[in-house]
Every structure is written in C-alpha cells, then in structure tokens.
Design goal:
Length: about 140
C-alpha cells in the first residue's frame, strides 16, 4: 500500500499543530504500518519552506519515513484535466495548480492520500481513496 502524504499533514506534525498534530501523526504512523509513505514535488516544496535549512527538512522526512516520489507524465496530464474542469466550473484561483498535481499524483501513482482536505479531492479526484485523520480517533 502506497500512501501519498499531503502538505497539511506534514505541517500539522512538524509544526506541532495543537488542533490536528496528534491525529495527523497517528494517521501517518497507521499508514506507514500498512506500506510506503511518499510525497510528490509539490508537497516536498511546500513542506521544505517550513524548515530553516534543507538538511533539517531532509532529516525530518527521513525520520518519519516519507520519501520523494516525482510526478509521472500521466499524473501531470490528469492534473491538467482536473484543473481545466475546475476552471470551467468558475474556479477563480482559490486552488493553485499544486493542489491538482498532488491529487493526480496520489490517484495515478499511489493507492490513497492522507489529507485533511477531503472535500477538494472528492470533488476533483472521485476515485481517490482518502484517509482523513479527523475521521479517526486520536
């Protein structure tokens, strides 16, 4: 089982978020017991900026067991199709392309995604299995 990890989960954990941190960490551990944890380049980039040094970020990702998983061409094209759908529905820019890349990566290259952003992914990636830590006991 390969689980794509969304940025919000990593920031919950690394930032010791008082509302979501414990649940996100527990859900991440649960997913790790079931297989691999990966993050695409959008998540990698969004999370790395929260650290003062690149080495600190890489060490932290290694400690929690998340590895880098670059986007494949088919996932990039799926992200484009979903972005196009969003724009055709009147989407203005509340969502950035990175959100669509993260969802498409999880759908095409992984078995599921660990995220708190379930509404967005359900709207644009209906086939994607979503693990939401807010739906699990802490």
């Amino acid at each position: 089982m390969i689980t794509a990890v969304d940025t919000n989960i990593l920031l919950d954990i690394f930032g010791a978020d008082t509302t979501h941190g414990i649940r996100s960490a527990n859900a991440l551990r649960h997913c790790l017991r079931e297989g691999a944890l990966v993050a695409c380049e959008a998540v990698w980039t969004e999370t790395a900026v929260a650290f003062p040094r690149e080495r600190h970020f890489l060490d932290a990702m290694r400690v929690i067991g998340v590895t880098f998983s670059p986007l494949e061409e088919t996932a990039a094209l799926r992200a484009s199709a979903s972005w196009r759908l969003y724009r055709s529905r009147g989407g203005k820019r509340e969502r950035v392309v990175a959100d669509f890349l993260i969802g498409a990566h999880a759908l095409i290259q992984c078995d599921r995604i660990l995220t708190r952003d379930r509404g967005f992914y359900r709207d644009y990636f209906r086939e994607l299995i979503i693990v939401d830590p807010t739906e699990r006991p802490a």
